[in-house]
Amino acid sequence: MGGTFLTVAVLTGLLWVWADQSQLLIQEIGLSFVLATEADSSLVLLSVDDGSGEAVVDTATGSKPIKAKVSFRGTRNRLTELQADLQSGQLELLSYLSEVTYGDGEHDIAVINLLNANDKLRDRGVMVEEAEPANITVELDKWVRREKIELALKKTSESHRFEASIEPPEIAVDVPSRLKDRQIEALLVELPHIPEKITPDQEVTGTVLTEFEGLPVRPELSKVRVILQPREQSSAQLGPLEMKVVLPADMIGKYDLKFEKDADKVVYVSVVGPPAELFKLQTAPQEKVRAYIRLSTKHTKLADGFDKVTVEFELDDDVHGVEVSGSPKTVKVRLERKPTD
């Protein structure tokens, strides 16, 4: 008798568990999935409009991440596991645009269809009932091969310091068909790191960029050799420069600057850099170079004494590769409060 009751109790419990597991629920879950073309596809994904009005950022591979709110149908346990794995990043969703289904041009695609075709979701026994956005618009093109496109180094604020040659100087590049007959002067190469001191024939590794005028491109090489040659450096002395005073806002207009007796009220500065950049400074030093000293309330409490302050220099933005050389320039000054009316 007791065994019968135990058996009935166990079966009843299992039936309740089975009923709980078999009952289908609808649950909204926020997620992100990546839209991409297949690796061996001749299609290139150019743009995605998900209806949000915000640009969908390209990933390094040319695929596009899409955020959506999705209503899934499934059992309680499966939905709970799905939500946990999506939120933790354990489950990553990728949706491919197949050549069999899509050709080049613009397509309006239902998000439900993309997600319900995903193997990882199907294996979890869940189905998509609704999605927001409901549809996305994609623009596709076809890859075509350009056999020779020249490589050029991307200019930076450090470019004045060296000459560069790239090996190989030209490579083959897959481009969207709309660029097939376009003039592409050069595909850019970026240097992740530029040595602080450049020696003759110094070799570094450059990264070939995978974008041209906002469109994705697919170079046959991702890395190339870049050989650097240091540029000639010259020196010059600039001045005389008037020293400007930098004060806290609440002190402006209330104090006079006093120099130690016989102290110079102007300053000269030695600089080194490319000859062409130094020429800019020498022809217009007052406009291109600013000399200033920073003072504060402590410089009002010196009685008859003076404080040694370091002179700082600032160059115009259009002057590149020039550095101040030699020992820091200093001046002895103090502040005296102006008489009040």
Give a written overview of the molecule.
The chain is α+β, with helices and mostly antiparallel strands and 341 residues long. It is 17% helix and 46% strand. It contains six helices and 23 strands. Strands 2, 5, 7, 8, 9, 10, 11, 14 and 15 form a nine-stranded mixed β-sheet that branches. The chain has a five-stranded mixed β-sheet with strand order 21-19-16-18-22. β12 (211-212) and β13 (215-216) form a beta hairpin.
| Alpha-carbon Rg, integer | 34 Å
Helix content: 10-25%
Percent of residues in beta strands?
Answer: over 45%
Order of helices and strands: HEEEHEEHHEEEEEEEEEEEEEHHEEEEE
* Main sheet overview: 9 strands, mixed
Structural class: alpha+beta
Number of strands: 23
Global morphology: elongated
Number of H- or I-type helical stretches: 6
pLDDT < 50 runs, ≥5 residues = none
Q: Taking all residues together, what is the mean pLDDT?
A: 87
Taking the alpha carbons of the first and last residues, their distance comes to: 111 Å
Features:
alpha+beta, 341 residues, elongated, nine-stranded mixed sheet, five-stranded mixed sheet, 6 helices
